[in-house]
Amino acid sequence: MSSATAGRVLIVEDDPVVAMVVEDILRDMGYEVLINITLEHAMFELDDGEVDAVLLDMQLRGKDARPLVLELLARKLPFLVLSGADQTALINEFPQIRVLPKPFGKATLEEAVRDLLGRPGVATPAPAA
């Protein structure tokens, strides 16, 4: 990730309303955003382009996103699970996974993304000196 850009975040979410809300928040933070609604398309996106982080729902059109989770762990790519379902089993199996329960607010998502990527988005103004 170059210092000239905030980075590229892939949203893997099959609910268009949730995807659009998350996209708007990330764009306002200065991130480039890609959206995929299926597991298959998300896997292709990982292979085809530079992605700095992934935000994903664990249930995509009735399919469990576990294969994508395993791929992201293998690639050591930062990701955040956005889920309205109980993810206790997933967290117990993979304690390093970050989960943001739905519903979440704008400030909570912004904080989670900043923490995930280890830096503020470019749209966040620096404090005055």
Structure description:
Keywords: Phosphoprotein. It comes from Rhodanobacter umsongensis. It holds the Pfam family Response_reg. This is Response regulator. With 129 residues, this protein is of the alpha/beta class. The protein has one domain: Rossmann fold, CATH 3.40.50. The chain is 40% helix and 21% strand. The chain is built from five helices and seven strands, in the order βαβαβββαβαβα. A five-stranded parallel β-sheet has the order 2-1-3-6-7. It is globular and about 30 Å long. The C terminus is likely disordered.
Number of helices: 5
> What is the name of the CATH superfamily?
Response regulator
Largest sheet strand order: 2-1-3-6-7
Distance between the termini: 27 Å
- Determine and state the CATH class: Alpha Beta
Structural class computed from helices and strand pairing: alpha/beta
The global form is globular
In percent, how much strand structure appears in the residues? 15-25%
CATH fold name: Rossmann fold
Radius of gyration: 14 Å
Beta strands, count: 7
Please specify the SSE layout and strand pairing.
Blueprint: E1 8-12, H1 16-28, E2 32-36, H2 39-48, E3 53-56, E4 59-60, E5 63-64, H3 66-75, E6 79-83, H4 88-93, E7 98-101, H5 106-117
Parallel strand pairs: 1-2, 1-3, 3-6, 6-7
Antiparallel strand pairs: 4-5
Question: Main traits of this protein?
Answer:
alpha/beta, 5 helices, single chain, two-stranded antiparallel ribbon, Rossmann fold, disordered C terminus, 129 residues
